[in-house]
Design brief:
The protein folds into 2 domains: about 80 residues; about 70 residues, OB fold (Dihydrolipoamide Acetyltransferase, E2P) (Beta Barrel). It has about 160 residues and is an alpha+beta fold. Helices cover about 45% and strands about 20% of the residues.
Length: about 160
């Protein structure tokens, strides 16, 4: 087989293997295989054909491999292989606990030193709390000023 034809076939096959690496989780085995195919193809062109042909193929590889990868990653997001599930409140997924909202505006006592996070007792319940960055000593009186997500934010009262 002609060295030029064999190199072109190796280049095309390596491009297909790069695409397969994006869609098939191989742990990098396909990436190593494609690098070897690109490398051997360039070696054949530089050693058997000419430096000009090898340089031309190298420039094409430097342009088209990133383009192939970008195209593949864009297609991956739209394929059935990607997780496209959107979790909503209607499905029962809530990021903030409703019972934490009840602590808003209440006062309590810091059970541990808050630097800036720690434990406080609010309405006879132990609650993990955070401050806005300030240090609050153990036993100090605190007030809940905000509840965001699963964080109960307090300040000294």
């Amino acid at each position: 087989m002609n060295a030029i034809l064999f190199s072109i076939l190796l280049q095309l096959s390596a491009g297909i293997v790069v695409l397969a690496e994006i869609f098939i989780p191989s742990g990098g085995i396909l990436a190593v295989l494609s690098i070897g195919m690109f490398g051997y193809s360039l070696f054949l062109l530089f050693s058997s054909v000419s430096v000009t042909a090898g340089s031309f193929a190298l420039c094409l590889d430097l342009i088209f491999v990133p383009v192939i990868m970008l195209w593949g990653f864009k297609r991956l997001g739209k394929s059935r292989l990607a997780l496209n599930t959107c979790l909503t409140r209607e499905q029962g997924v809530v990021s903030q606990s409703k019972e934490l909202d009840a602590f808003l505006g209440k006062t309590g006592i810091a059970i541990s030193a808050l630097r800036p996070s720690g434990t406080a007792e609010i309405d006879e319940l132990r609650v993990d709390v955070v401050t806005r960055g300030e240090f609050i000593e153990k036993g100090a009186s605190i007030e809940v000023i905000a509840v965001t997500g699963n964080q109960v934010i307090v300040c000294p009262s």
